């Protein structure tokens, strides 16, 4: 299993508030994390790196003790996200200039031909299998809620003025409820994790075409495509095959 990742500030932002972690090939635990921070000053950068490192540390420290059982792995990921939330929240409380910071968080743990996923916010995880691309996560966003309530169409959601308004994030409340679930993972599958700096400007069909054309160089190609479309936000892409 190999993973390739890249992050870029984009064309419109002064600093990069995204953060990611990838396991190295041969690591006993195949763990991948993407976070998209928010907050003034350098709050977003602090939140995304804190959350990523806290979740990573929690999972790596406790994985061995759960014996690889499905429900226990899901509980481990949930607990890791709750712990990361607490770490970000405490940091925000302790430093005035970091008040109000937060972050999305997406976790993929691949074990025994399964992808164990934890998700908070509007970063996304896709799985490409043969000629199909499927989004595995559901955006925790105001616009997604409008779509589900039947108030706007999926087409209207694409250019909605409030598409960046998220309904769940780490660091904003002492309670966070992540989505945690497991999906199958076959040998030729491609898993793609990304922040909304990509998905707000590049559609799923283009994502499929770039990811399947050249997996190793796909992260750079995604960044170039997003920047070609204006690069309004930081862009982080992680591709696993």
Quick gist of this model?
The chain is α+β, with helices and mostly antiparallel strands and 241 residues long.
Based on secondary structure, the structural category is: alpha+beta
Helical amount: 25-40%
- The SSE order reads EEEHHEEEEEHHEEHHHE
Which second-level CATH architecture applies?
A: 4-Layer Sandwich
Number of strands: 11
Arithmetic mean of pLDDT: 93
The coarse silhouette is globular
Query: Cα distance, first to last residue?
Result: 6 Å
- C-alpha Rg (nearest Å): 17 Å
Largest sheet: 6 strands, antiparallel
> So, the CATH homologous superfamily?
PPM-type phosphatase domain
Number of spatially distinct domains:
1
Can you tell me the CATH class? Answer: Alpha Beta
Strand fraction? 25-35%
Question: What is the name of the CATH topology?
Answer: Phosphatase 2c, domain 1
**Low-confidence runs of at least 5 consecutive residues:** none
Q: Please report the number of helical segments.
A: 7
Characterization of this structure:
The strands form 2 sheets. Strands 2, 3, 4, 5, 6 and 9 form a 6-stranded antiparallel beta sheet that branches. The protein has a 5-stranded antiparallel beta sheet with strand order 1-11-10-7-8. It has helices spanning 43-62, 70-94, 142-148, 154-158, 196-199, 204-213, 218-228; strands spanning 3-8, 18-22, 30-38, 102-103, 105-111, 114-120, 124-129, 132-135, 179-184, 190-194, 235-240. It is of the alpha+beta class and 241 residues long. It has one domain: 4-Layer Sandwich (Phosphatase 2c, domain 1). Helix 1 packs antiparallel against helix 2. Helices cover 34% and strands 26% of the residues. The model has no long low-confidence stretch (mean pLDDT 93).
């Amino acid at each position: 299993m190999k993973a390739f990742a890249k992050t870029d500030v984009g064309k419109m932002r002064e600093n990069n508030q995204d953060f990611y972690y990838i396991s190295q090939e041969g690591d006993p635990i195949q763990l991948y994390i993407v976070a998209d921070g928010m907050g003034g000053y350098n709050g977003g950068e602090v939140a995304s790196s804190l959350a990523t490192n806290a979740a990573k540390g929690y999972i790596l420290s406790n994985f061995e003790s759960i014996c690889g059982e499905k429900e226990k792995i899901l509980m481990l990921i949930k607990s890791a996200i709750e712990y990361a939330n607490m770490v970000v929240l405490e940091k925000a409380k302790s430093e005035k200039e970091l008040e109000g910071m937060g972050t999305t968080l997406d976790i993929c743990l691949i074990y025994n031909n399964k992808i164990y996923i934890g998700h908070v916010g509007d970063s996304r995880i896709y799985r490409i299998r043969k000629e199909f691309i499927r989004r595995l996560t559901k955006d925790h966003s105001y616009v997604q809620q409008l779509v589900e309530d039947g108030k706007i169409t999926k087409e209207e959601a694409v250019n909605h003025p409030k598409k960046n308004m998220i309904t769940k994030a780490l660091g904003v409340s002492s309670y966070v409820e992540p989505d945690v679930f497991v999906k199958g993972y076959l040998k030729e599958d491609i898993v793609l994790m990304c922040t909304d700096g990509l998905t707000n400007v590049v559609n799923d069909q283009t994502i499929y075409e770039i990811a399947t054309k050249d997996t190793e160089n796909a992260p750079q190609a995604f960044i170039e495509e997003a920047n070609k479309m204006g690069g309004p936000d930081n862009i982080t892409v992680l591709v696993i095959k």
